[in-house]
Design goal:
Blueprint lengths: L5 H15 L7 E2 L1 E7 L9 E6 L5 E5 L5 E3 L9 E2 L1 E8 L25 H4 L1 E5 L5 E7 L8
Parallel strand pairs: 2-9
Antiparallel strand pairs: 1-6, 2-5, 3-4, 3-7, 7-8
Length: 145
């Protein structure tokens, strides 16, 4: 009588694969916040991005018309990993005179906040179920003629 060993081998290989896939990365914590200009007025559109210095992960969130955002790392709103993060605030507002805008985008953000090299923004995300981030940026300088 011959014994079929394939089912046992299947479970052995499956078990080893599951053990090897146990590390899931850092825990993600719910994170929301607001973006304001230095004068207290709201940034009404754009994207916030945080880059973890420790975990090499980014979290992003879309700025709503009320200045609020919710960050997501693996999903749209799961949050950010704990620790110190560099932050940027990006906008793309086409103002060529040909585009008809259907919403008030508010004042534009100074482009220095679009890059990690020049934004100088940083935040710390705590190991908490509720992180509130407040970012303060400057308005884009007016062009002089």
């Amino acid at each position: 009588m011959q014994v079929d060993r394939r089912p046992g081998m299947f479970w052995l290989v499956t078990g080893l694969l599951l053990i090897g896939c146990g590390e899931q990365g850092p825990t993600i914590y719910p994170t929301r916040g607001t973006v304001k200009f230095a004068d207290g007025s709201l940034v009404k559109s754009g994207i916030v991005e945080l880059s973890s210095r420790q975990h090499e992960l980014t979290a992003t969130g879309r700025i709503q018309p009320d200045g609020s955002f919710v960050l997501g790392t693996h999903t749209e709103s799961d949050g950010a990993c704990s620790g110190e993060h560099a932050a940027i605030v990006m906008q793309m507002i086409i103002n060529d005179g040909m585009t008809i805008h259907t919403q008030d985008h508010g004042p534009a953000v100074d482009p220095r906040f679009f890059s990690y090299d020049t934004s100088n923004l940083s935040v710390v995300i705590e190991e908490s179920d509720e992180n509130q981030v407040q970012l303060v940026v400057r308005k884009k300088p007016q062009a002089t003629h």
